[in-house]
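Weekly structure sync - notes
Attendees: PM, LS, DV (DV joined late)
Agenda: review two folding runs queued last week.

Item 1: First target. Sequence and structure tokens pasted below for the record.
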Amino acid sequence: MSENNDQKFVYDFTEGNRDLKDLLGGKGANLAEMTNLGLPVPPGFTITTEACKVYLESGSEPAALRDEVSAHLDALEQKMGKKLGQADDPLLVSVRSGAKFSMPGMMDTVLNIGLSDESVVGLAKQADNERFAWDSYRRLIQMFGKTVLGVDGELFEDALDEAKAAKKAASDTDLDAADLKKLVKQFKKIVKTATGRDFPQDPREQMDLAIKAVFDSWNGDRAKLYRRQERIPHDLGTAVNVCSMVFGNLGPDSGTGVAFTRDPASGHQGVYGDYLQNAQGEDVVAGIRNTVPLAELESIDKKSYDQLMSIMETLETHYKDLCDIEFTIERGQLWMLQTRVGKRTAGAAFRIATQLVDQGLIDEAEALQRVTGAQLAQLMFPKFDEDAKVEQIGRGIAASPGAAVGKAVFDSYTAVKWSRSGEKVILIRRETNPDDLDGMIAAEGILTSRGGKTSHAAVVARGMGKTCVCGAEELEVDTKRRRMTTASGVVVEEGDVVSIDGSTGKVYLGEVPVVPSPVVEYFEGRMHAGADDADELVQAVHRIMAYADRVRRLRVRANADNAEDALRARRFGAQGIGLCRTEHMFLGERREMVERLILADTEDEREAALAELLPLQKQDFIELFEAMDGLPVTVRLLDPPLHEFLPDITELSVRVALAEARKDPNENDLRLLQAVHRLHEQNPMLGLRGVRLGLVIPGLFTMQVRAIAEAAAQRIDAKGDPRAEIMIPLVGTVQELEIVREEAEQVIAEVQARTGVELKLALGTMIELPRAAVTAGQIAEAAEFFSFGTNDLTQTVWGFSRDDVEASFFTAYLEKGIFGVSPFETIDKDGVGSLVRSAVEAGRATRPDIKLGVCGEHGGDPESVHFFHEVGLDYVSCSPFRIPVARLEAGRAAAGSKGSDSR
């Protein structure tokens, strides 16, 4: 982006507000908001995301930035009454990242900037605490060396461990000033050896280099991976917050902590968070020292505790949501370092949304926007069977719920490697750090022996919806020997199966069986939300789903091929069947009948095969229409890739060859092999299937139409209300549809005349080929409805074979950022989506009352549902299990569009 001479790149905390997240990032905007609320925020300023964008695109900072930073630094120094890094009483600052969307631990932070060989002595005198000053200096060199100068962080960790071992110290807090002076000297040697330069002593150089490092960290590997995982745009850039330091490591009357206004795991109100005496903020989130519960702060420092509780109430009321807060206490003085709308588990999201409605802070429409279909899907996962015989080997903090089972692995590389081989794994670490992100993504769940609900592992796992247990202290994790030892002496080696329960914090040896979630039981009608014993979570889900159903415009149907699936779909809230795949009715024993039909040489053979299939098909449809009585049922006529109903050509060739070698040829096998060779296709997905098969094999589609019509007539005679819709697949031109439609209408008329029952059967088609989408206006002349088959449409638009590409190169495409997400998972709005949009417009222009839906699995994808609402489809159809998700997202799409209209 080009630099504007009038552009302002730096804002004081007093100048911004929470609505400027695009410009100031989430952290900077919220620091400004807290400052405006009169809360105790250390003074500072924010460098905007626009400055970062200029830097990333041009390779250099905006020309005006240095002068703006200097002016704001001067103002900060005047406010604080001291200069950055001055010898006698130095001003120290932190330099922190702060993107629009929270990316916990993914970008760089440097504390204690301004310390040097000279100013550390002045800090010690000013604070009357030599240990504190040298501890702060060693932290600066360690963080600066790793994040700014690119020194291997393990070198600093090893040196710290050696210093503790030499002193026989259990924690770094047991090292005294003399120990820390030696450590600083060693750290400086590490920097010199690794970089070829001395640790910089000029405080302004430290600050400028740290600012650049934060800009650069936006494009760091872990940040890019996290953005892909969370679908955060790559072009936003990060702001940089320069904040005057306050110190939690000044002794027992100081400390640092993280707090939540409600429990981010359950949503319950109370005192939730972690506190660590005599520590700086990174110690808490890194999980390297086990914290105490926030409630204990009341007995440690009652004044600060009471002030914090008051501020938390102020922030939750102001933001009208769960707030995540970072704070420091410096010698009894409370300082607020950050607030943001906190990440939460799926269950907490639903509970909190309804609680806030009951408190009058938000309305139902806003509550609906506070939850997502992805969260609802998480709540539908199974949980561990409480009655199962289990071997519990430990217990930690329930950081992110779920029931996860997998093989124990002790590093991210192994987690990724084994996961790609199809293994389910549990990543076990002492504590995680941002470099573990790829392993956390690959794992079924995460288990750590250190850290609490606010540690890196907990925060990231909750954001991703991963099961996580933290702070299982009785478990000794040895990553070098790749094993974990329990308090009772049980050794878990890498590859052993473990189970972790993120709802209770319990850890088990071996595989624990699972049972359905109460949310699924609710959707299936086995648990009533109004019952006295109904789970609080179920009641919250019920309330939000009821509102979503009231406001949504999109109807939700199911993809179901039999009565059992149809009944389940109906219990889940399906408003019909959007796709019945009739080829699924011919698997198993019936496969040979279709094979005989396809391979028939004579008309008599073909008629015999069709006559055998007709009553079976009719009974299938009777059962389906009965299960979905009063609701539409869209039946897709036979659409198999031909090879699915032919003998395997290799097996048949071998059988024929062996028979010939025995000089005992089988005439039937020989004839069959000739027919299979004749019909063999190099690419069956683009071959003789769908409408093409119906046109080439006389009587095939008319048999199916007859079965549908007779089944409908029989159900009407039985006082039922069948609402069948007949869908012709893989149409590429209106002429194909016209021919099949004419034959179908003749059959329907025959059945009406013979039974005396009036039939109203809609005839339509799937739009699953680019040509069909482009000529949708013509095709609509012969179609009463369109259903977009987005699975095949994605394949044909992209030229991808889904069965092959997802395993062969999609991983590389996702890692390189070519895809943010697989186009088979979420609809490609620019390519496939533009064809859907134009086909909708053309279809409605020709036939204003045409019914429009989608039956590819995109119909159950949350993001895709919003697109289908936007382009004006009438319904989405998906697998039964995804129906509640689609209902919720259809409601969110409707409520969101109303909100945007009103704005």
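Item 2: Second target, run right after the first with the same settings.
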Amino acid sequence: MSGHSKTTTVRRQLGAVLFADVVGYARLMGNDEIDTYSALKSLLEQLEAACQAHEGQVVAVRGDGVLALFETATNAVEFGVELHRIAEQSNNARPEDQHLRFRAGVHMGEILVDDRGIHGDNVNIAARLQEIAEPGRVFVSASVYEQIRNRLRFGFEFLGPQRLKNIAAPVAAYCVRSEVAGAAMAATRRPETQQAHRPPPGIPSVAVLPFASLGGEPSDSWFADGLTEDIILNLSKFKNLFVIARNSSFFFKATTMPPQEAARELGVRYVARGSVRRAAARVRIAVELIDAETGRTIWGERYDRNIDDIFAIQDEVTDAIVAATAVLIEAQERKRMAQTAPADLAAYGYVLRGQQYIFRYTRQDNREAQTLYERALARDQDYARASAAISRTMNIDWRYSWAKDAEHALDTALSYAQRAVELDPTDARGFGELGFVHLYRKEHDAAIGAYRRALALNPNDADLLSDYADALAHSGDNQAAIGNLQQAMRLNPYFPDQYLWHLGGAYYNLKQYDAVIDTLTKMNNPTEGQRMLAASYAQLGDMDQARNMAARHREAHPNFSLDRWAKVQPDRLEEDTLHFVEGLKKAGF
């Protein structure tokens, strides 16, 4: 045989693949080709150096995309988070409309390697995960999550099985968050406990799906989202109606799931959905209520009004849903439903915009929300809802050590919550924030009283139930805490890890250590449960597991101080704090 044909050697190897791409690159190039090219070239040089520092290799740069290979999932994900940090740092010197932001996807598996690069399905999966990732986020496959879940102190939100372009089978995916504390408060699905169908409760039950925002800019969706949240809030005040929590309803914002299927997933009889079109001083709202058993629309309405009528429209929609689901309403409940409208409609707009940020639970988003709530209060100093919302942002700041003035954060939160309940004693939010402040000031009777007032005003608020349960557990009433947490989980099927942490704490107080372990191993963010798991294994005498958990905790929380933790614990009973300290010391803390 003649000729000198070159044979390419292909080998298989296990590796973690990261693919990152610039968001809106074509638009940026269209605006300023030279500037964008120069900025990206400089940024890619920084990223290549960071990749090498994380023991990775940039295999290819394709236009605005980076393909990198790592031996371990740990290094790949750490680089993915670092990539976003470097990009944000670089953006500080650029106008906002010229920011270079990335999406990133990471997958781990066998890949094909030759002298031209890396290939195969597992490379494609990383690229497709990048395509569905949110800007500034890293999306990882379940194979990556299983490798890093106990090693890295990041937050993880389970996104469920994702259909990826040109990938035959759905890929279970997670979103990585650099601030794990906030991720523990965010709504999330759980792979181990997914129930296709939950039976509806014995009373009329409804889920309000996020209203679609028609026309205008996508950034205008805050108004449709805010309207949806307020309708959920209004409905939640009726004790004879079972209402799915806002966080679980909003899981269906980006899906096209039929309402009957959504109802089966959430375990409710009725589903409300609608659309909003806002133009200048006018608003057009369409709403329908669907009976999931029959698939029939049992009520529908279209409103074409001045935007000043928004509160009247909310009340009319609430009345119609309540009437259609045949809920019996007492006069006291009807009075409680009436919300105090702000004197200035712009103040309401600022509050709705703030809501867009507060549920993301990051330091920066919490700060953005606080700024918007402060603007609302500046427009209307008697707006109770804005005052309660500011108190909430300060409570979150204190809870996760984000506050600049941590020593006085709780005191300031207290004053805003007190002002909120003075201005509007029918708003549950103010009493809920008051309960949290009182608990961590170790004023237990005041905390329990405030939470009970809040739940009397809004019995379907799942987060309030969870916080109330935590206050009960810290006050020694653990059985009541467990019952309230179980109800919170049913109202909010995609409940955050925080509910499991609260439940684990109640079981630990009762010395039901197996129940603690069973509960906390369901957390999507295992590093946050390691302390209680270590104490529980130690109390059971399983010292190998206890020491293993303690070692992992030290790696993820190098600054943890047992003495400081014991001082902050808001237990009414000293024996509860000593019981936990005993378990931690046995585990090697």
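Discussion on item 2: Residues 567 and 577 are 9 Å apart (CA to CA).
Action: LS to circulate a short write-up before next sync.
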